[in-house]
Design goal:
This is AMP-dependent synthetase. The protein is of the alpha/beta class. The chain is 29% helix and 24% strand. The protein is globular, with a radius of gyration of 23 Å.
Length: 424
């Protein structure tokens, strides 16, 4: 039996990179034609020059908050008079309309996302296969089927894999136990906490559910302790990382070493609050460019922190790996009544070529806040701290002490703003 969902999962990394980049330019041109918001995102970019990652980095990052604001503005009529109704609903980011989209979902905000007719639209079939799911099996799907796309994500993936799906949805643990006992599904999809509740309810009811031997989890943390809890019950659980905007981003394999990036996306790690890619190993914001012709998001900032791991996975898959979810990139905080954003710290860095990295620490108690900006510099010129403090004052309207430290002194945790105030 095949080890991989597709043979390209073990293709040479250089071959994959060349393939992705060769598809990028046609994807940009098509997106610009059909999605007005993408055309605006590209309006100051020479699209013809976007043939490598350096060229890609010249496209401004669009973050989830901007996607929400674009949708809200168009739904309220701002700048949308000449656009068809479907463009207004999706903020101009969708390349498909009613009829082409088979479903539309709502995430908190609300942000509306389309789903087209393409098989495995969300891209989770690869993750199911890596978790041990195979054609001809029954999958018990306990993701929600209402409003958000999680239920459809797993169902369409299972169908693409050749599986049958029981739409369990959420809640009703006693009925979930009975359905599993009657139908004997081979695998489960949903959150790990809900499967744990189902198994504990089965214990309370004096029933055994031995048919489930594999599970694909998403939507919440899956720590090693919980992985072992399931393993002790004969269930091999794996995790997948995705979003309602992008679909599946990365997935766990039998190697249990990080998450392997999906095949049809270009993933970058950027400094929070900026558009600038970080070197491999540095913690930063996950930014994804999809090659999805129906919903073509370019350099979409997820708001999640992660880092790229070195080398290919021991399982034989050669795509880039990330460490998994490591926190949130939006570290905006309020100091003395003023909001301070990671983007403002990025502007400070750009003003001073001698700075390679910066971290703002906010300490003290509410009402007596203290800001200290620590900056890394290999060869700091005289008065660097003074000049940086002036930039902070100008950009944030707040005073900060500036401490110059050597390269590598600041933690590699993706934090640009670290709020360590005492709220007691």
């Amino acid at each position: 039996m095949n080890t991989y969902f597709e043979e390209r999962e073990r293709a040479p990394a250089s071959e994959r990179e060349q393939s992705l980049l060769s598809r990028l330019l046609p994807a940009l041109e098509a997106a610009r034609e059909r999605a007005p918001a993408i055309a605006r995102q590209l309006q100051n970019v020479d699209v013809g020059s976007v043939r490598d990652r350096q060229g890609l980095s010249r496209i401004p990052v669009v973050r989830k908050s901007e996607l929400l604001q674009a949708q809200l503005a168009m739904r309220q009529g701002s700048g949308a008079a000449k656009l068809p109704p479907v463009s207004r609903i999706f903020g101009g980011f969708s390349a498909i309309g009613w009829g082409e989209a088979v479903r539309v979902f709502a995430s908190p905000g609300p942000i509306y996302e389309p789903e087209s007719k393409r098989p495995d639209y969300w891209g989770f079939a690869r993750a199911l296969y890596a978790a041990g799911f195979r054609p001809g099996e029954l999958v018990h799907n306990c993701f929600s089927y209402h409003f958000t796309p999680a239920g459809s994500m797993m169902e369409t993936a299972a169908h693409a894999l050749g599986c049958t799906v029981f739409p369990g949805g959420v809640g009703q643990t006693e009925q979930q136990v009975q359905a599993i006992a009657d139908l004997a599904p081979a695998g489960y999809t949903g959150t790990p906490s809900f499967l744990k509740l189902i198994l504990q309810k089965a214990d309370d009811m004096g029933m055994r559910l031995p048919s489930i031997t594999r599970a694909l989890f998403s939507g919440e943390a899956f720590p090693p302790s919980l992985c072992q809890w399931f393993a002790d019950r004969g269930i091999a659980g794996y995790q997948a990382y995705g979003s309602a905007d992008l679909g599946m981003i990365a997935y766990e394999t039998s190697a249990r070493e990080g998450l392997v990036v999906n095949e049809d996306i270009i993933l970058e790690i950027v400094r929070p609050g900026s558009d600038q890619p970080l070197p491999a190993g540095e913690v930063g914001e996950v930014v994804v460019t999809t090659l999805n012709p129906d919903y073509p998001l370019l350099r979409f900032g997820t708001g999640d922190l992660s880092a790229i791991m070195a080398g290919p996975s021991p399982c034989g898959r050669t795509n880039v790996r990330i460490k998994g979810w490591m926190g949130r990139a939006d570290q905006t905080t309020k100091v003395r009544g003023m909001f301070v954003h990671p983007g403002q710290i990025e502007q400070v860095i750009k003003r001073h070529a001698d700075i390679s990295k910066a971290r703002l620490e906010v300490s003290g108690k509410i009402g007596s806040d203290v800001m200290v900006l620590k900056v890394e510099s290999a060869t700091p010129p005289p008065e660097l701290a003074v000049k940086v403090a002036e930039s902070v004052r100008e950009l944030t309207k707040l005073r900060a002490d500036v401490v110059v430290v050597g390269p590598g002194s600041l933690p590699n945790d993706g934090k640009v703003i670290d709020d360590i105030r005492n709220y007691d």
